[in-house]
Write a structure and sequence with these properties.
Helix content is 39%, strand content 19%. By secondary structure, the protein is α/β, with parallel strands linked by helices. β13 and β14 form a beta hairpin. α1 crosses α3.
């Protein structure tokens, strides 16, 4: 594995999902998936829109059966066309055909579980005619039996071979409008599987750690696994998979991208961990500032420091920040102390400066 500094993203071809360009060095797209029953159009549409509003670039829905399939056009018609929707299909090729006909922007399948070759050809032909890309989604629960017997369950070679087998099926039909994912619940398995696939093709990669866990555990596990991939240049689109309300997924994904310096949007609050020198109630202060600035679009690094020893120096790494002491505080902008004031004014002064710098309104 070649290491690069700064991060040098893997070169991949471009695949268009609605109005979102995946791969080719374009910004890494954030995805999530609804939990609503697709047989309920209004509930599904409401959740789709909520996920877009939370920061998603692409939203995927599951298509359980033909009753759900019959609702796809109604769902697509009720969601703004600028918002790309993906249909997740397993086993029933006619559901994939319904999704394509309904105007969905991408379908996610495993060609190997669609059935006979003629069924795969029919789906591929329809997708090609409509310009709809296909994501080949290999995960821990969908590895073919012969590959499991050959490699075992947690082998990255198993995931890579399964994915490239599916790619070969589509390529044999002259279909190349493809995105690949090889999601394992094991972070090491996923890391090496994605790197193996990256070496074998130039298709864009959708990265994720499947079945990562609950909100806290899944966030940590996804941050480790996805952060490692992103820092080595792998990933064109990303989903954080949490056993929680999916409304949490996009904000976590965006924070991971921001932490990897791969997303130049939003406020990043850096704060000291506190120690015996801290003479202000700093932790609630930092939490309040992060909460009130979470919606801002402007790229800004904000420092919240708790003492006059290291605080001013550490705050110089931020665009703007505050440092507090016994009964006093200071506002630091671009490395310079610009004003001093009472401790109780720390939050007020910092938020006012953030508003002035971004031109955006702070949430109260």
């Amino acid at each position: 594995m070649e290491l690069n500094y700064p991060i040098k993203r893997r070169k991949s071809r471009v695949v268009k999902v609605g109005e979102v360009l995946i791969g080719g060095g374009f910004p890494i797209a954030v995805q999530s998936m609804t939990t609503a029953d697709t047989r309920d159009v209004d509930v599904s549409v409401k959740q789709i829109n909520a996920l877009f509003d939370s920061g998603c670039d692409i939203v995927r829905i599951s298509v359980l059966n033909h009753n759900a399939g019959d609702n796809l056009k109604a769902i697509r018609d009720k969601v703004d066309k600028s918002r790309p929707i993906v249909a997740d299909i397993h086993f029933q090729y006619k559901l994939a055909l319904k999704a394509i006909e309904a105007g969905f922007d991408k379908i996610r399948i495993n060609p190997g579980n669609i059935g006979a070759e003629w069924k795969v050809r029919e789906v591929t032909s329809a997708a090609k005619d409509k310009g709809v890309p296909i994501r080949i989604g290999v995960n821990s629960g969908s590895l073919p039996e012969d590959i499991l017997k050959k490699y075992g369950h947690d082998s990255p070679e198993a995931f890579a071979e399964a994915a490239m087998r599916e790619v070969a099926i589509l390529e044999s039909m002259n279909f190349h409008n493809t995105i690949i994912s090889v999601k394992s619940t094991n972070t090491q398995t996923a890391f090496w599987a994605y790197h193996m696939v990256a070496e074998r093709c130039d298709y864009p990669l959708h990265i994720g750690i499947t079945e990562a866990g609950t909100l806290e555990t899944g966030t940590i596990k996804s941050s480790v696994g996805l952060g490692a991939l992103l820092m080595t240049g792998i990933g064109d689109t990303i989903r954080v998979s949490l056993s929680a309300d999916p409304i949490h997924e996009a904000p976590v994904a965006k924070k991971i991208l921001k932490s990897c310096n791969l997303k130049d949007e939003g406020v990043e609050v850096i704060a000291c961990p506190t120690c015996g020198r801290c003479q202000i109630d700093m932790i609630p202060l930092a939490e309040s500032i992060e909460r009130k600035t979470a919606h801002l679009k402007a790229s800004l690094k904000v420092a919240v420091m708790g003492c006059a020893v290291n605080g001013p120096g550490e705050a110089k790494a931020a665009d703007v920040g505050i440092a507090g002491g016994a009964g006093m505080g200071m506002l630091i902008k671009k490395g310079e102390v610009v004003s001093r004031f009472k401790e109780e004014e720390l939050e007020e002064k910092l938020l006012a400066e953030i508003e002035a710098m971004t031109g955006e309104k702070i949430n109260e």
